[in-house]
Amino acid sequence: MGNSNYCFNSGDELSVNVSNIFGDEYGEFIQDEPILFELLQITQSDTLNFELTNLGSESITVVLMFSEDPENSAALTDPNSPVLNTILPLAISGFLLIVGIIVSLIGAVVILVDLKNNQNNKRNY
User: Fold this and answer.
1) CB 51 within 8 A of CB 21
2) Per-residue pLDDT, 2
3) Which of 24, 30, 71, 94 is the most exposed place for a label (fewest CB within 10 A)?
4) Which residues pair with 16 in a beta bridge?
5) What is the reported pTM?
6) CA angle, corner 40, sides to 34 and 46, nearest 5?
């Protein structure tokens, strides 16, 4: 049945073959480590096929994650981008929170200095 945990085990091996629907090969990678990072530069819009072959004796769990080229990303220019809809408001909120904490600390110091000066003035009378 195989190991039910999601850890890399000795002897695990996977073949990853990447091609498009027309049969053009983008590469074949033999994976015998827990994580595989491969950079594929695909210059045109294409549909990709990922053929995964388990070369090891145990069953495996595979997770594929994709990202686009960050240099050509429209994350900050597209108004419907998740970055602009979630991360940017959080960043602005965090910045305003920090500014608020700094202003509050400055206000507390000013109040303490004013109280001290007020008490010193009462002693003179």
Assistant:
1) no
2) 46
3) 71
4) 29, 52
5) 0.45
6) 120
**Contacts of residue 38, Cβ cutoff 8 Å, sequence gap at least 6:** 16, 27, 29
What is the 3-state secondary structure of the chain?
CCCCCCCCCCCCCEEEEEEECCCCEEEEEEECCCCCCCCCCCCCCCCEEEEEEECCCCCCCCCCCCCCCHHHCCCCCCCCCHHHHHHHHHHHHHHHHHHHHHHHHHHHHHHHHHHHHHHHHHHCC
Spell out the per-residue pLDDT of the chain, length 125, in tens. Answer: 444 455 667 777 888 888 888 878 888 888 887 777 777 777 777 788 888 888 888 887 777 777 766 666 666 677 777 777 788 888 999 999 999 999 999 999 999 998 888 877 666 55
Pair of tokens at residue 101: 């904490």
* Rounded Cα distance, 116 and 110, in Å: 10
- 């990202």: which residue's tokens? 67
